[in-house]
Amino acid sequence: MSDIYVDDLVIGATFWGIGYAVGSKGKTLIIEKSIRLGHEFIDCFKFGDSWDCQCQTEEGERFKEDLKTRNIISPTHRPLLQACCPMLSDAVGSNQVNLLLGTKLLSLEKTAEGYLVEAYNASGVMRICAKKVLDTVEAGGNFYRKSLNVMLNTNKRKVESIKCSEFELYEAERPDIAYLRFYVEKRDSLMTARQKTVEWLYGGPKELEGFTVISVGSVFDYEYSGIHQNSFGISGSFTNPVKAFDKGVFAGRAGESK
Known about the structure:
The protein is of the alpha+beta class. It contains six helices and twelve strands. 24% of the residues lie in helices and 29% in strands.
């Protein structure tokens, strides 16, 4: 078992985490337990808002403009979220970001020099010595509610936007697609939440008559408010992925301190 030495270890290949690695110029290693980039927005169908935000870094502004140029962000601000993943891959490749996918965190121990981390992937167990560890995924208890989001086929039915205490329904980037945000309990696990959502859908809410399920989100959509919105390092707390990426770059350049 060999040791890896880095300045900063980022947990989660999130928009913020990749931005941080871009800003730190090779001094950061990212480990991601899945094989997907940007899952905190892409895999939970979190569209966000405030897409016309002014970025603090050139990289953030360039990322936003590239998304617009490629029509990933439409004029109506209904982004093709899945198309953001290749853009993150471009950022990783062009900036030589150190990234390990399919790598699970096993343990984390504070040491006099920083942190000793054990992680595991197909190559086996590895030890990572880092001066700083940033978990960009863990929501903790700082969110005020969460939802499990669902992509729906409208089957040519007109989508009427609905917003109530139990769920939200809204239009997507294509006329044959709609998205449902189904609110669950803060204590619900992903398995419990998926079961609740599917049972509710099969119960036949009248507002969704004629719609069929295409995909159910594989991660939660967390909502934050007050001081916890745009929280340092928690990528999903930002109002949109561009803002998360931009703030990550800014922090990676030591523009912010925790």
